[in-house]
């Protein structure tokens, strides 16, 4: 992989955890400081990725099986990495991503039962060795996060993952906790039950040491 000069920060958590809001607030703060910030989302991030996103999140596609689901997520991710993320990092930008491979590990690897190796094998092919410098995990109980997700529903069609069984979402949360415990240097876990401003302050405390060391 080409040497990267930028910083890659990902936001993870259950649907409705508040990670998207926190990523937006961080981007705004970094831009006020004069940093070049690229925001992206998974699935999506690119024109092609947006088309894949529609398939993955459309509530009409409840019969989508676990293996093609995983492959579609990585198809979107590979396009995002090659078209958007790597070029931005190579020129020294700060890239913020709403989900990355950790989501596939939690949702498809653990909760869908496809296993770690399937996710890691696709990551090796799709991501060119790219690993986040920092992963901010907004941790919140599934009941609260799903209630939030269903309240906001900006797009009524993008509800397929929200509509999974409660046990599925509990397994996703547990998977995230296992991954965070395994990689404490990369993951920073933040309690998502606090108000938006308190969570934003905790996010900044986690991010500030990393971006202050960078030359972007």
Jot down its keywords.
five-stranded parallel sheet; globular; 55% helix; alpha/beta; 5 strands; 216 residues; Rossmann fold
Count of distinct strands: 5
The overall number of domains is: 1
Q: How does the major sheet shape up?
A: 5 strands, parallel
Instruction: Give the low-confidence spans.
Output: none
Number of helical segments with 4 or more residues: 8
How far is it from the N-terminal to the C-terminal residue, by CA? 20 Å
Overall, the morphology is: globular
**SSE topology string:** EHEHHEHHEHHEH
Mean pLDDT: 91
| Name given to the CATH architecture | 3-Layer(aba) Sandwich
Beta fraction: 5-15%
Structural class: alpha/beta
Instruction: Give, in spatial order, the strands making up the sheet with the most strands.
Output: 2-3-1-4-5
- CATH class, anyone? Alpha Beta
Radius of gyration: 16 Å
Classified in CATH, the superfamily is P-loop containing nucleotide triphosphate hydrolases
- Helical percentage: 40-55%
Q: Within the CATH hierarchy, at the fold level, what is the topology?
A: Rossmann fold
Quickly describe the structure.
The protein has 8 helices and 5 strands, in the order βαβααβααβααβα.
Description:
The protein is α/β, with parallel strands linked by helices. It contains eight helices and five strands. The chain has a five-stranded parallel beta sheet, sandwiched between helices. The protein is globular.
């Amino acid at each position: 992989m080409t040497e990267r000069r930028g910083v890659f920060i990902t936001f993870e958590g259950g649907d409705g955890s508040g990670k998207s809001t926190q990523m937006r607030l961080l981007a705004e703060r970094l831009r006020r400081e004069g940093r070049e910030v690229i925001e992206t989302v998974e699935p999506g991030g690119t024109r092609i990725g947006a088309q894949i996103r529609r398939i993955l999140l459309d509530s009409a596609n409840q019969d989508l099986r676990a293996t093609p689901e995983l492959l579609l997520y990585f198809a979107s991710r590979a396009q995002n990495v090659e078209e958007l993320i790597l070029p931005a990092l190579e020129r020294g930008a700060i890239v913020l991503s709403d989900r990355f491979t950790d989501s596939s590990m939690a949702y498809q690897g653990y909760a869908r039962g496809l296993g770690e190796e399937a996710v890691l094998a696709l990551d090796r092919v799709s991501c060119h060795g790219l690993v986040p410098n920092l992963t901010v995990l907004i941790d919140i109980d599934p009941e609260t996060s799903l209630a939030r997700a269903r309240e906001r529903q900006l797009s009524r069609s993008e509800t397929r993952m929200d509509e999974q069984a409660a046990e599925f979402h509990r397994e996703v949360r547990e998977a995230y906790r296992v991954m965070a415990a395994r990689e404490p240097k990369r993951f920073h876990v933040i309690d998502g039950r606090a108000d938006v401003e308190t969570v934003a302050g905790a996010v900044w405390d986690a991010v500030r040491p990393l971006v202050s060391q960078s030359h972007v």
